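ok new one. same drill as before - structure tokens go in, u give me an amino acid for every spot. 169 of them this time. try not to just spam alanines like last time pls lmao
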């Protein structure tokens, strides 16, 4: 769904030559080496983000999202996303125990914003391919298309890109 004016196509030539660059930008992307945040290892931004929803009220379940637990949940970002979702189900299988509830203040305390920023910053600072892909998006508006919905603008990712770009200058 991208629209690039003809005169700007050359700006993104290098990016166009990177296989699956869109997937690399995804929060579900599994980094080459685990991200280390809060003294734990995480497979993806998604794993870290979803875990934060349970950190205070359900620390045992929170730990399941970390690679340190060696759980299935820790290795598969799509399962982690489902576990942190409204139903806690992945392909009709209950992966989050029904008694486990999300921390009530996750959104109101803005922990959601801090968590996504912290995880993405770690990803883009420490994964060479992810860093290259992000920087090669130049100043493009980054959006995520969700079928049947309006595109979601990735403001946090663009903010991190701007910070990393200014560090390189």
């Amino acid at each position: 769904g991208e629209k690039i004016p003809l005169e700007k196509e050359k700006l993104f030539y290098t990016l166009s030559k990177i296989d699956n660059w869109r997937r690399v930008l995804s929060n579900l992307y599994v980094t080459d080496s685990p991200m280390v945040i809060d003294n734990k290892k995480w497979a993806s931004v998604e794993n870290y983000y979803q875990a934060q929803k349970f950190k205070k009220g359900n620390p045992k379940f929170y730990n399941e999202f970390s690679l340190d637990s060696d759980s299935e949940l820790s290795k598969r970002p799509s399962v982690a996303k489902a576990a942190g979702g409204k139903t806690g189900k992945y392909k009709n299988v209950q992966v989050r125990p029904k008694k486990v509830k999300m921390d009530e203040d996750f959104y109101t305390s803005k922990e959601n914003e801090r968590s996504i920023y912290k995880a993405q910053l770690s990803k883009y600072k420490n994964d060479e391919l992810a860093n290259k892909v992000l920087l090669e998006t130049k100043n493009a508006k980054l959006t995520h298309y969700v079928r049947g919905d309006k595109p979601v603008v990735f403001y946090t990712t663009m903010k991190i890109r701007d910070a990393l770009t200014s560090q390189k200058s």
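The mean pLDDT is 94. and btw The chain is about 45% helix and 10% strand.
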